[in-house]
Amino acid sequence: MGQRTQLILLLLFIPYFLMERTAGDDYNGLLSLMNDMKNTPPNWVGSDPCGNKWDGIVCTNSRVTTLQLLSMNLSGTLSGEIQLLSELQTLDLSYNSYLTGQLPPSIGSLKKLVNLNLIGCGFFGSIPDTIGNLQQLTTLSLTNNSFSGPIPASIGNLSKLYWLDLAVNQLDGPIPVSPGLDTLLQAKHFHLDNNKLSGEIPPQLFSSNMILLHLILNGNNLNGSIPDTLGNVQTLEVIRFDRNLLSGTLPSNLNNLVKVNELYLSNNKFIGPIPNLTGMSLTYVDLSNNSFAVSDIPPWVSTLQSLTTLVMENTQLQGTVPNSIFNLPNLQTLTLRNNKLNGTLNISTSYSNKLQLIDLQNNSIAEYVDTAGGYSKNLILVDNPVCNKLDATKSYCAVSQSNTPPYLTPPNSCVPAQCTSKQISSPNCKCAYPYSGTLVFRAPSFSDLENSSYYIALQSSLMQCFQNFSLPVDSVSLNNPIKDSTKNLELSLELFSSGQDRFNRTGISIIGSLLSGQTFKPPQGFGPYYFLADPYGYYAGISTESKKSLSIGVIIGAVAGGTILLLLLVLAGVYALRQKRRAERASEKLNPFAHWDPNNGSGGIPQLKGARSFSFEELKKYTNKFSEANSIGSGGYGKVYQGILPTGQLIAIKRAQTESMQGGVEFKTEIELLSRVHHKNLVSLVGFCFDQGEQMLVYEYVPNGTLKDGLSGKSGIRLDWIRRLKVALGAARGLAYLHELANPPIIHRDIKSTNILLDERLNAKVADFGLSKLMGDAEIGHVTTQVKGTMGYLDPEYYMTQQLTEKSDVYGFGVVMLELITARMPIERGKYIVRVVQTAMDKTKVLYNLHEILDPAIGLQTSLKGLEKFVDLAMRCVEESGANRPAMGMVVKEIENIMEQAGLNPNAESATTSESYDVNKENSHHPYSNEGFEYSGAYPTLKIEPH
User: Fold this and answer.
1) What was the pLDDT predicted at 925?
2) Dist. CA 676–CA 746, nearest whole Å
3) Active site residues
4) Which fold has domain 707-936?
5) Helix (H), strand (E), coil (C) string for 665-708
6) At the top level of CATH, which class does the domain 424-533 belong to?
7) Is 245's pLDDT higher than 50?
8) Which of 399, 395, 394, 425 is nearest to 412 (CA)?
9) 412, 475 contact by CB (below 8 A)
10) I need a labelling partner for 405 at 20 to 30 A (CA). Which of 337, 545, 555, 679 fits?
11) pLDDT attached to residue 593
12) What average pLDDT does the chain have?
């Protein structure tokens, strides 16, 4: 080819090379993101993100200015090469809970960034100081991650910042000022709730130059008093200081904040008088659980015409409840329990028709005057003298449970469709895959959650917003409004696509960004909010076809000849090698056993049947970062946490602490064993985690605790004789399955009342297979192994010979049977339950003369049909010699016979759920907590005393 032709072609490509110096950086930056993240959109192919219209990308003049990848199920980390997107104005990666790692400091190089939203991701570590370099930033939302460390003082450099939301993280240290948040004079929203911030609220944080609307600091460790300077910020509408360690007296100038609607000061250590709040525009007031000076209900309360909710629980109130307070026209809830109110309660006939709840529990009210046409809604006077009278049978002397079903958007004058699979019938009665999530409102002005008018207004407002942006939303559904433990209002939201049964990625990104970026404004009364989306995996229009263009390479190859062709081949080789490594990394991430090394003593890769592997970050998300609120038990092995999968399934996660971790072989054996057993009377293994140095087992969640808790009364469930027979039968069936139907058979080795769980219908489920053994050689009939078990349940023959058999489980089950009739621990004050029963038994007398040791809660002794045969069976199970004990299959048959002779159907499920019983969840010990002494070593000497 002539030099002239080459020169012409070179001139033709000069604009291309010049463009590559700018748009090429964007392309390289996006390639880096693809390299570090999984599940980027499948149409991210080709070399021109703008021309090829990559999902989630918006361009201006061939430069990437918006990157929105919301709810894409992204995983991995955010590449530091994000800085190459130098024209980026909006970065929104919200609702990708598996997107983890630290936020790269290079984020501070995006000098044109206006919106940074990373809500509901899995980022951890400190927020980089370089965040203060983003001078154009107006919105910074890092809500619901795992960020730790202090709030960077450099945030004070963001002079244009309007929305600051760092809530629901692990941030600690003081609130930074000078420099710090005090310089953010354009900010209207400080949302710093549910972190670990400490120290005093600095007085210099507030000034009259601020235009702050929402000051939300609840759920931290802030101490000291509220500074008087707070009264200078007269634009404030919402103040939340609740659940901190604040003390001292309230500022006398709070009354200056005339625009404040919601005031939360509960659960602190405030003292002194309650200040006069007449000048404020209060709708919701919560001053509960403080140490204010003893006083009557302040008279100014009756002047708050906009008030919907007054909560002053445990605030040292005394005197009578003024009649005038019930006449407030908008009052919905009045909660004044745990005070010293006295005298006569007189609710006038002119009380507000919006008033749904009056809670005056635990006061000293002596009389209630029920005037003509008296209050007919929910009045609670439990633990007042008025309810201590012999004739106190009124409804207000009991805590009633509302039977009102949770709100659910009704169908729009149509018959709901019968949908299959995971589709849901929309309000317009069309089957679809909705985009769902939770709307969290931090300070609603109302407390009547049964008033549907609020949700109708919210639904209409959402639809109007989507229509204004011409989004393909067919309908909106809201359901299940609840107040969470932090007093936020949570609402489940479902959005349905129009024209087809699912959304595409573009639709999801735009809808999500309207909610993450606060473009949607809720109706008055709902207050500040954030949205947490559920994973969405039903995208429409997915195409995995690669459309990579090689035209440029072909042209250059033809022009430049052999030398350039060779260069291209080298580059292609490098590219292929890079792609191969990327594929290997992706494969490794997809393979849960990629790091399972068979050469380090952990054996080959586990063979699972029906269980799955979870990553550490997944379980961290499902347990709210392993928060204390999700902790439901503990033992020598570590802690147990309650979690919830994206499918809604409740799970219990048993997390081993470092010193109790098993070796690789033992852990592998346990999860393999657990994944093989499937029976309705065995707790199911959902999966496990062997990641980041963790060993965790994930079980189905069993709600009603252990049999031991049921017998001791800790769980609040009353177990009568019939229910105890059913529990015994269920546990026996579970063990019989292990012994006789599992292949090879399994010996549990730790049968005890804390390892028998009760589900929502009080069906028994055998749990905790940590000490279980496979019966590998059926001809030998035993396994020779180190003695392990729990004192009081341990088979003496197993201890003497170290030969473990199925009859060792039978012995432990016999002890459990004796627990069922006595509710006594196996060893109590030196007395062994087996010996106690043997000593007391007299077969010539009614009920074998066991009246004195029977559990009184078991029921009327005259109705204990079959108890003698039950005791006979239990004593056979605890025979000294295993050969004299029945097999578990025979135990099952004999319990079935006992039930049939008592007129019961052994195959019938409980007809009533446990909700029929008085269940006190706060006092229950969770089934996965490993109570009792786990024996491993020499058998202890027991001092057995006669009963």
Assistant:
1) 40
2) 10
3) 750
4) Transferase(Phosphotransferase); domain 1 (1.10.510)
5) HHHHHHHHHHHHCCCCCECCEEEEECCCCCCEEEEECCCCCEHH
6) alpha beta
7) yes
8) 425
9) yes
10) 337
11) 46
12) 83
